[in-house]
Amino acid sequence: MDAVYQIKSNHGLYPKQYIEDTLKDAPGGTYIVLEGKHPEGTELVAIGYRYNSKVTLCFVITKNAGSTRPGKPYEMKFSDTHGNVYVRLVDRPAVISEFFGNSNVVDKHNQARQYELALEKKWDTRDPNFRLTTTMIGFTITDTWKISLHHLLFSRLEGKYNAELTITINVFAGILTKQLIRKAVSYTQPLENITMNLKYKDEADVSDMSEMVQESKIKYYPSTTNSKGKTYTKSRRCVVCEKFSIAYCGCCNKTFCYAVGTTNHGRTCMTDHIKKMQREGRRGRKRSSII
Predict the structure, then answer these.
(1) Could you give the CA distance from residue 193 to residue 139 in angstroms, rounded to a whole number?
(2) Which of helix, strand or coil describes residue 2?
(3) pTM here?
(4) Could you tell me the residue ranges of all domains in the chain?
(5) Tens digits of per-residue pLDDT, 107-138?
(6) Nearest-CA neighbor of 279 among 234, 212, 219?
(7) Torsion angle of alpha carbons 106, 109, 115, 116, nearest 10°?
């Protein structure tokens, strides 16, 4: 398997000092390529890349990981004393251009897992095994969340609005946890209840949210234009949490919190209300079938 690694503080068996001394006075865009072999026999390539006039970046790659010929240059932007922005193209190897083009994806994943979900901070422990398990759970949740952002079910959840802008990783983790707990409980119930559970256990699944949105007829208060020509929507307080919202239930005409557009508050008052109505409706249909 081929790989590209950036060398920082852990540089054992790596000619970092030689590369930095060689490129000390070189201009930005200069790079040096060294070939070698790991003690276990793997052929490796060391690359020293002069990022600018002061910084040298070091990399090690497997021999077939990519080309060391000049690739897509780095666009260095700087401004003069008058605020004019200039762009200077800095040469770099093709394999390094590809590395920086994809490394941002890893950074976004780490940002969501470490700073937004932050299970390691919430589940503080000195047990190394529990700490490792916590990190693996964080990986799984973040991976699933990233996949869900491209799933049609979440597009239906938000209707005409962009679901990717409104569902946070913390809200998603709550939905995922609730579903897993409910399914775990259903497996531990007596055998005679399993048939009934199979019919009604999915009431909290996200796949039902599109039907819930349609049944409840989620509506938004109309926009108005004032005398100055400014368009705005008058919000009202949510009947549950008393936060301001512009959404209301079309069945009962009550105001509930509901994420709209780029809003990212994470409150679930509207969806909880919809689930409650669905449960009551199902119980009513069940009683009528028994009668």
Answers:
(1) 35
(2) coil
(3) 0.44
(4) 4-106, 118-148, 154-290
(5) 788 888 888 898 988 888 888 899 899 999 99
(6) 212
(7) 160
